[in-house]
Amino acid sequence: xxxxxxxxxxxxxxxxxxxxxxxxxxxxxxxxxxxxxxxxxxxxxxxxxxxxxxxxxxxxxxxxxxxxxxxxxxxxxxxxxxxxxxxxxxxxxxxxxxxxxxxxxxxxxxxxxxxxxxxxxxxxxxxxxxxxxxxxxxxxxxxxxxxxxxxxxxxxxxxxxxxxxxxxxxxxxxxxxxxxxxxxxxxxxxxxxxxxxxxxxxxxxxxxxxxxxxxxxxxx
Length: 220
Ligand code: OGA
Ligand code: MN
What we know:
With about 220 residues, the chain is α+β, with helices and mostly antiparallel strands.
């Protein structure tokens, strides 16, 4: 399981991947600028704008059985899950495959699959402080957030605030600027999206481990 085909990771990605692994090892989180080729970050930006303009983004929920009234008081973004039917999404998912393979090799995380969605936070929208996974319960292990906003200014709000789990102290606030990638251990960091004052576009994603114990799930 989790056999890694190292030849699939282009050599030019290795310095960045090594930086990411070192930071995850020492801090549990990392903020990376210029994470993807500029053309791919542009294509992803164009893609979410196109999806938004066709009205295909859906109000986001929280968990499997959503009470949408509760969900709306916690988060106000609209989302669309990604797949490989579009070239930009395919490029994104391939980059995340490289990250998954390298993290499994270097950090032995046993990451099994990855899911991600585009998100649009209209002015006024945010996402209250939360964990992406709860200790011992969830199979979300590593979270990613990637930003798609040109010319984001300090006054535009919409920062990702990351807190320390033990002390609940603010560790850092991240501006959601184009081609910036944030990666953190899902069980270790409560975080929130401060209310945006401008349209805020992003991709949120999670690497999961496989918790299924039945024999058929080995085929997955
Ligand atoms: C999430 C999330 C952070 C961000 O979608 O779970 O925490 O900066 N997003 O968009
Ligand atoms: Mn989150």
